[in-house]
Every structure is written in C-alpha cells, then in structure tokens.
Specification:
heterodimer; A: 161 residues; mainly alpha; 6 helices; 8% strand; B: two-stranded antiparallel ribbon; 2 strands
Chain lengths: 161, 506
C-alpha cells in the first residue's frame, strides 16, 4: 500500500488492486493502436467492448484502488494486502509457489527442444522441491509419468509435442 | 403428444431399441462412457476435445456403433468434468466451473466422497430425465429454441455475465471488468464480418482467436496448482475423518431430501441446453444462481453446501439431452460438444436437421436410447468409484502438482498444436493469481471468452438487421425484451447488495 500526503490531506493507493485494472487498460491501449486502421464494420462490436473495458478498468481503479483522505478508523485502509504472502494460513508457503512457477516456465520453454526430456527433468525437479527425497520414488514417478504421457499423447494421439 | 408419438414410432423407435439392445452396441455404450469419464476427468480435456480426439478412431466402425460410442463418451466426459472440479478445484470442462465452488470446499473438509457420490447421482438421473425429454418433447422445445435469433443470443451472453457476481456474491464492478476483458479477448482474431485480422499482434495463430480451453486451463488449473503449492495440502487438518460408505449413503439421502433442487437444476439444464450455442457452461451458472436465490441460507453457497453441487451437476448433465434437441432436429448445435458431434454425424453419413428422423430413424433412436443406458452407467460407475476418487484428494500434493502441470501444458498445446497456447496458459495462470487474491469473480473472464463468439455474431447480425437502431435492437421480440429486463434486474439486485456502494462511500 502506498500513502501520499499533501499537508493535511492524503491519498492511499492499494498497489495490488491496481494490477488487474492496469493490465486491462494496457491491453485495451495496445488493442486500440493495433486496430486503429481497421474498417468500421470489423470493429462494430469490438470497439464498444474495448471502450467498456477501459471505462470499467478506470472505475475499478477509482473505487477499489485509490482512497482520498482515508479515515483513521477505516479498517480497509489498515489492512495489508499481500499477494506474495498468500495470506490466510500459517502453513502457507509462497516460496514453493514461486519455485514451481519458475520450473513451469522453464519447462514450457524447453519442451520445444525435447518434450520427453523436458518433462522428465521438470517432474524430478518439481517433486524434489515439493518435498520428496526418496530417490527411487523420484525416479519411478518421473519416468513412469513421462512414459505414460509420451505414450498416450505423442505415440497414440500423434500430438506433435 | 398425440402428434409426436406416432411420428416417433413411424420414425423407427422400435428398430432403434432393437439396434441398441445388441451386445456390441451395449458394450460400446459401456466402453464409451468409461472412455468419456477417463478423458473428461483430465483437466482441460473437455467433452468437446474427447469427441474430437475420438471421431477419427470411429471412422472404421459401423455408423450406429460409432455414433453411440461418441454420444456415450460425450455423456461420460460431461459428468467427469466434475471429478477434478470437486477434488482439486479444477473443472475438467467449462460446464463444471460452478461445481468447484462448493465441491472443492467439501473436499477440503474431508467430504470429497460425499460430494462425488451426490454428483454421480444427480448427473446420472438428470441425464436420464433429459434423455426422456429429448425423446418426448424434443420437437416442441426445438421450435421454441428457434425463437432465439441473433439479438436474443447476444442478450443471453450478457445475462450470463451479469449473473456471475450475483451468484458468487462478489463485486459487480469487478465481475463486469472481468467479463469485459473476456469479451475483448474473444474478439482477438479474424473478425467474423470481413475476416480481417484483429488485434493479433503479429501472431498468425491468433487469427483463430484465443482458445477458451487455454484460458480455462490457465485460470483454473495453473492458478490452483500455484495456490496448492503454497497451501501444502488439499484437505484441511480438521477434515472429516469418516470413510467412504458413510459419505456415499449421505450423498444418496442428500438428493432424496432435495427433490426440488434436483428437478429445478434438471429443468434449467434441459432448457438452456436446447438453446443454440448455450450449453452446460451457461446452464450451471443459471441453475446455481436460481438455487441460491431460493435457498433459506443463500450466504452459505460457496462454502461447501450440497445444494450447490446438486444445482450445478443436475443442470450440467441435463444439457446433454437438451443440447441434442436443436442438433438433431434443426442441425444447430446446442453447445461446443454437440458441434463436434454434428461433424461426427456428418462424417458417418447422417446429416442432422429437418427430416433426420425420417431419413435415419433407427440410428437416431438408438442414439437417444443409448443416453438412458449411458446415464445409468454414469450412476453406477460414479457411485462405485466415488470412494476411490475421493481418496485421491488425500494423495500428497507433491504427486499431484507436477502431474497436473504436465497435463495442463499438454492440454493447452493439444488444442491447436501450438507453443503460443502454452505460453498464454501460463500467462492466464498468473492473471488468475491476481484475480483470486483481489477477490474478482475469476469465472467472469472465462465466461466472457466462452460466450464472446456468439455474442459478437448476435450483436453484429442484430445491429445490421435493425440498421443500428438501439431501441429496435433491444425490442426485437418478447424474448429479447424479457432478457433485457432480466439483465437490468440482475444488475440492480447485485448493486443493491451494497458491495460496490459500500466501497464507493468508503
């Protein structure tokens, strides 16, 4: 949360509340530029949807993300919003989520090189990160699942992975 | 009825029954339902994908066997979409999105078997009732469904978006923003009017748009896996320790004690399924919203109440029979899955549409009767498997997360054999994290993408027909006026609940 003070007045911005509306506004802006030269008939429906999206994004920003002169007893203004913290339970472990996300991104980027190898490496790494330490389980699970997935999707259904 | 029954008999109902009750066809139903359940339970492998994947396999089969197999797999897949929805908060198909809301809460409370048993019972029974409706009043419903022209379909899409925040009890403004982003994403690709590439950002794959299955996998599956990794386990520490048989018995009594909830969901599913373009994905939202509206304690919906599952899964499976009504009688698919079935019918030499019952009565009736057998099998497979499926929720997450991530990647890739779809899936997963943490009704975005296609076609056709007159556009018919009123009512009711007003006044 960001608080900006101007003398006795202050503006409070809930940073995480701005993320989705700003993404929506950014997408709308790129969409607008990309479709600027299209004929009206192509944009008959898309243009009103585009404007509605931008207007709604601004409304959400105004209503949820920005607060002018938040009251001292305003519970909302005191609440710490945290995405990275995955708040709510003492067991929560955001670190593992971030590592799994990183592994998944690496996996997605490497399946272009060799699907079966990338899958095997991802499965071993993910299983290890999530707490499995027994080597035979790491090997059996990863090899077995890679074999099943490769067999069904690549060999049988001919999906060109 | 006096008009319809002679038509049915003349069309070959008796021969159709004889065709069905041959060992080969009965075995085909049993295998088809099992295949549908296995594939439908894989997150991202919807009933539509199952039909598409297996249509080439059936090319060498006898026509009746092939179509009975595909229709049975369709039924099994529609039901099975609820299994991962209940167990890991991951809908196997768009029609199971609502099942997550209460189903997963029950799983977290250690009541997965109870939820799965209830889901199997209402799915099987609703499918049987919908098949009976298809058999008896299909032509009548098909006639009414034809009243839904382009404007009505557009308004139906908007109505579906406005009821989501109400159904989830979340902010109307955030729900509408999610829905609008979904509608905008659905416009990416060649425009349906002039086929000019629109907002494809130099990616030729995007000429065919952003696929809703990719969106679905990213927002629901990938997002949930990230949360699951943080949370550590599916089932809470204070979960119900009771074992399977008790929970199955409870599931049976849960349905027996709530006949109105079950019948209302089934009726909504059959009706919405019969509307061209609107399938289980729309039906289960409407049914859930209605169940919540009539409930004594609506605030408890979404916290793990069984009425939520009864509404979602009865309507979901009732769309099978309903969606086949316009598909078979007028040749207009009632959903994405029946669009895939329509092409399979054509491949096997049957052209759905007026006169089909006269041209291929025995085959068509064999297919309709196979729905009865197939849904009875769903009940048997579902109840028999509930306690085993339920135990899956107690599998350590370290074995679930890697497997589901791999299947998500494969599922996203398999949609169009494109790596871009996999990257989009991951991006949607990250967006999903933000949506969940900021309390957006995430499903609004997904529904926006799903209904975006027919919303645009409906809007453009209606707008051009009425020469851009908004009043004529909105008052095209009694149905359109009723839908306008429903949209207005939905917006007013949700706004009046005060969430946004409360936020505005701080």
């Amino acid at each position: 949360m960001i608080r900006i003070a101007f003398g006795s007045r202050s503006v409070e911005i809930k940073a995480w509340e701005t993320v989705f509306p700003i993404l929506a506004l950014g997408f709308s802006a790129i969409y607008y530029v990309d479709t600027l030269n299209l004929p009206e008939k192509s944009m008959l429906y898309a243009r009103p949807v585009l404007y509605a999206t931008a207007a709604l994004a601004l409304s959400v920003l105004a209503v949820f993300a920005v607060r002018i002169n938040p009251g001292e007893n305003d519970r909302d203004s005191e609440k710490i919003e945290s995405i990275a913290g995955f708040t709510g339970s003492g067991q929560d472990n955001a670190g593992k989520s971030v590592i799994i996300l990183g592994l998944a991104v690496g996996y997605v980027l490497t399946i272009r090189i060799q699907f079966a190898v990338a899958t095997l490496v991802f499965l071993v790494a993910a299983l290890y990160v999530l707490g499995e330490r027994r080597r035979w389980i790491l090997a059996a699970y990863s090899l077995g699942l890679t074999g099943v997935v490769h067999g069904i999707f690549v060999l049988w259904l001919h999906i060109p992975l | 009825m006096s008009v319809i029954l002679p038509l049915l008999i003349r069309g070959g109902m008796e021969v159709g029954l004889e065709l069905l009750f041959t060992p080969t066809v009965l075995l085909t139903v049993a295998i088809g339902v099992a295949v549908g359940i296995v594939f439908g339970a894989i997150p991202g492998f919807s009933a539509t994908m199952t039909i598409i994947l297996f249509t080439p396999v059936t090319i060498g089969f006898d026509t009746t066997v092939a179509l009975v197999f595909l229709v049975s797999a369709y039924g099994g897949a529609v039901y099975a979409g609820s299994i991962p929805a209940i167990l890991i908060n991951t809908p196997g198909a768009p029609g199971s999105v609502v099942t997550c809301w209460d189903g997963y809460e029950l799983t977290k409370a250690g009541r997965a078997t109870f939820a799965l048993a209830t889901s199997a019972i209402v799915s099987g029974l609703a499918g049987i009732i919908a098949a009976a409706v298809l058999l008896l009043v299909g032509p009548v419903l098909a006639g009414f469904a034809l009243n839904f022209g382009p404007v009505e379909l557009f308004l139906l899409a908007i109505f579906a978006l406005t009821i989501i925040p109400a159904a989830k009890g979340q902010s109307l403004l955030k729900g509408l923003l999610g829905g609008a982003v979904g509608l905008l994403l659905a416009t990416v690709g060649s425009d349906p009017q002039l086929a000019r590439p629109r907002a494809i950002f130099g990616q030729s794959l995007l000429r065919s748009g952003v696929d809703f299955i990719v969106t679905l996998i990213g927002l629901f599956v990938f997002t949930e896996m990230l949360f699951l990794a943080a949370r550590g386990s599916i089932v809470k520490a204070d979960a119900d320790p009771r074992e399977g048989p008790d929970q199955i018995r409870e599931g049976i009594f849960a349905v027996i004690n709530r006949p109105v909830d079950f019948l209302r969901g089934t009726a909504i599913g059959t009706f919405v399924g019969s509307l061209p373009g609107a399938g289980a994905d729309v039906a289960n939202f409407v049914a859930y919203n209605e169940a919540k509206r009539w409930a004594r304690t609506p605030a408890e919906f979404g916290t793990g109440v069984i009425e939520g599952i009864i509404a979602a899964d009865s309507s979901n499976n009732a769309t099978q029979g309903g969606a086949l009504i316009p598909t078979l009688t007028v040749g207009i698919p009632g959903s994405g899955s029946t669009a895939a079935l329509l092409s399979a019918f054509a491949i096997h030499g049957l052209n759905p549409g007026p006169g089909l019952f006269q041209r291929a009565g025995p085959e068509v009736y064999a297919i309709i009767f196979s729905l009865f057998v197939g849904n009875a099998l769903i009940l048997i497979y579902g109840l028999g498997g509930a306690r085993y499926f339920g135990k899956m929720s107690r599998i350590p997450i370290r074995f679930i997360i890697p497997a589901v991530v791999v299947l998500s990647v494969v599922g996203a890739f398999a949609v169009r054999n494109a790596h871009l779809d996999v990257l989009l899936m991951v991006a949607f997963g990250l967006v999903g994290v933000i949506l969940v943490k900021m309390n957006y009704p995430m499903v609004s975005l997904v529904i926006g993408v799903i209904v975006g296609g027919f919303a645009e076609r409906g809007f453009v056709q209606g707008w051009l027909i009425h020469n851009g007159g908004p009043i004529q556009f909105l008052t095209t018919s009694k149905v359109s006026m009723a839908l306008v009123m429903l949209v207005a009512l939905s917006l007013l009711v949700t706004a009046a609940r005060g969430r946004d007003i409360g936020e505005l006044t701080g």
